[in-house]
Design goal:
The protein is of the alpha+beta class. Helices cover about 35% and strands about 20% of the residues. It is built from 19 helices and 24 strands. The strands form 6 sheets. It has a 7-stranded mixed beta sheet, with helices on both faces. Strands 2, 18, 19, 22 and 23 form a 5-stranded antiparallel beta sheet that branches. Strands 1-11-3-8 form a 4-stranded antiparallel beta sheet. A hairpin with a 2-residue loop joins strand 6 and strand 7. It is globular.
Length: about 575
């Protein structure tokens, strides 16, 4: 079945023709009772009021009051016509926060699934008009002349850019670039982890060929199980309990990455399932001047490249989410030593984050000077004070020592301070136990889908003056926080120990996630909050048709030229 997790050597990716139709999937959902819906809404209101680190910022910046809106929804939820309407309303309240760390996760029957169409799109921004181009198509799923490279013009009778704008209001991107980029990324693949099912059962697509001829096709939404990363050493997966409180991760971005890999790179999934070294394509990147170095890391790709007769190195970091940060960093260090030492492109486009320690410790590989981690602060509430008091060294169930934040949270009860004092989460000694690995100049490539721990990596790169930054958008995802689950918070408030597989405490396995500590920059950006401000690149590269369809050829050429202009 296409909605089953791949288990054996016969896995060949997602099967479009055998996938479940959306109406069939919805018909099999167990509905929540009115009382269960109110329980979820009331838990969400309490979580935001008591623990949401960015709540004062969001109220001021966007003129919203999510707590009041949730309480109003609780009173009127019985008026909603369908189960899908309930989930869409709750998703919308959280989307208005423009914060992908703070989300409503749908019940288990939804959260494990993704609604999808058999193609992907990208945006070419190098001309006077932005063009929505088809970048990937599942073999045999759509009749010709629909193919890679065609331009999408209309969507269910709506001009394509209006359709993208409508979806962007649900994506939760913290700035315009991020909202649009996330809408494009999720346009044909909707993880129901935190997006309600599509309203329409099918889409009517109008598209244009390169010669300008226009055509139409109709495609049904299909549903399959969201691909899980394979069980290899450094897989990105649900973190162990000791790491779950130190995550800075965009779960939806991670879900989109997993679905794309299952749908369009099944050979990679096959290799990972059997513990083989990951081989992409034929051990070469799509770029004609790069040769790949094989690695067992599933989140990282590395190439030796040559441009205009001179060597360069290219390191793509797709995620910092790892179960073994020490092993992950050791393998990255070995890769760096095998690459040309004349100049390095580090590419963190679309990286959804992961373990903060993995991201911040890696920065030391590129500097002789000490790296300082970002500092994190709690919203000053009585609930956060109780939470920190429950997690101190004298508590045998301690998951993380939060005692450093207690004095300032107590003072805030008298002074009215909005936030606690700020302290680093990543151990400075762990960062400085590493040394510079790469001696040459370094350039960082970013996108508006670089988020969370990736945002923190980019901020550290800028604040420690490690090199120039080239973006394909005019900002990063701008997610500056450490996120916790509602179920984790409830466990810790009662002095319990975190374990894997614990129930969420909410009906149907629904869950809530919140930005519990906000990141404050150091160094060059001393004291600036990372949330919504993000990092503006030194230069922006407007993606071309060749970038979208031929392996980023123009982007890499631009990056190498900037790299060679950088001072050594």
């Amino acid at each position: 079945m296409s909605d089953q997790r791949p288990q054996d050597s016969a896995f060949t990716g997602i099967n479009w023709h055998n996938a479940q139709n959306l109406p069939e999937f919805l018909a099999g959902i167990t509905p929540l009772s009115l009382a269960e819906k109110r329980q979820i809404i009331d838990a969400a209101a309490g979580l935001l009021a008591d623990h949401y680190a960015h709540l004062p910022h969001k109220r001021q910046a966007h003129g919203i009051d999510p707590v009041a809106k949730l309480r109003a929804l609780s009173r009127h939820v019985g008026d909603l016509a369908t189960e899908t309407c309930f989930h869409a309303e709750l998703v919308q309240v959280f989307a208005e926060l423009r914060d992908l760390h703070t989300v409503y996760t749908l019940p288990t029957e939804y959260a494990a699934m993704v609604a999808f169409l058999p193609f992907q799109v990208g945006i070419a921004t190098d001309g006077p008009d932005r063009r929505v181009l088809v970048t990937h198509v599942m073999p045999g799923a759509v009749r010709p002349p629909f193919r890679e490279g065609v331009e999408i013009i209309g969507w269910n009778g709506i001009p394509i850019w209006r359709a993208i704008e409508k979806l962007s209001s649900f994506t939760g991107g913290s700035n315009r670039a991020a909202s649009q980029a996330r809408a494009v990324a999720a346009f044909t693949q909707r993880p129901m982890l935190r997006l309600a099912p599509p309203d329409e059962m099918h889409v009517e697509i109008e598209y244009a060929l390169e010669d300008g001829a226009r055509h139409r096709t109709r495609l049904d939404w299909k549903v399959c199980r969201l691909g899980a990363d394979s069980h290899v050493k450094h897989k990105a997966s649900a973190p162990a309990p000791e790491h779950s409180l130190t995550l800075a991760l965009d779960d939806m971005g991670d879900a989109l990455r997993r679905h794309r890999k299952s749908a369009y790179a099944p050979h990679v999934v096959h290799a990972e399932l059997h513990g083989h070294e990951v081989e992409h394509g034929n051990a070469h990147s799509d770029h004609p001047h790069e040769e790949e170095i094989r690695t067992r890391l599933t989140q990282v790709r590395a190439w030796r490249g040559e441009f205009e007769g001179k060597p360069f190195a290219h390191l793509r970091i797709r995620s910092f989410n790892t179960l073994d940060p020490d092993g992950f960093l050791d393998d990255v260090a070995m890769l760096l030593q095998r690459l040309p030492q004349d100049g390095l492109i580090i590419d963190v486009r679309d990286n959804p984050g992961g373990l903060m320690a993995a991201a911040e410790r890696m920065l030391q590989f590129f500097s002789d000077r000490p790296i300082h981690p970002v500092r994190m602060e709690f919203l000053a509430t009585d609930a956060n004070l109780r939470l920190c008091e429950a997690q101190t060294p004298d508590n045998p169930a301690m998951s993380e020592d939060l005692s450093r934040w207690i004095p300032s949270l107590r003072r805030a009860q008298q002074t009215g301070s909005v936030w606690s004092s700020a302290y680093a989460m990543t151990d400075v000694n762990e960062i400085r136990s590493s040394e510079r690995i790469y001696p040459g100049p370094v350039l960082l490539v970013t996108s508006a889908l670089s988020y969370s721990a990736a945002d923190i990596f980019i901020a550290g790169f800028r604040d420690h003056k490690l090199g120039k930054i080239l973006g394909v958008h005019n900002n990063t995802g701008a997610g500056g926080a450490n996120r916790w689950k509602y179920s984790d918070i409830q466990t810790l408030l009662t002095g319990g120990r975190l374990t894997t597989g614990r129930p969420t405490g909410l009906p149907g396995g629904a869950d809530l996630r919140v930005a519990i500590r906000r990141a404050v920059r150091v160094g060059l950006g001393e004291g600036v909050e990372l949330e919504e401000t993000g990092i503006v690149p030194d230069a922006v590269h407007h993606l071309t048709r060749a970038d979208l369809l031929s392996g980023d050829v123009d982007l890499i050429a631009r990056a190498v030229r900037m790299l060679r202009d950088a001072p050594i």
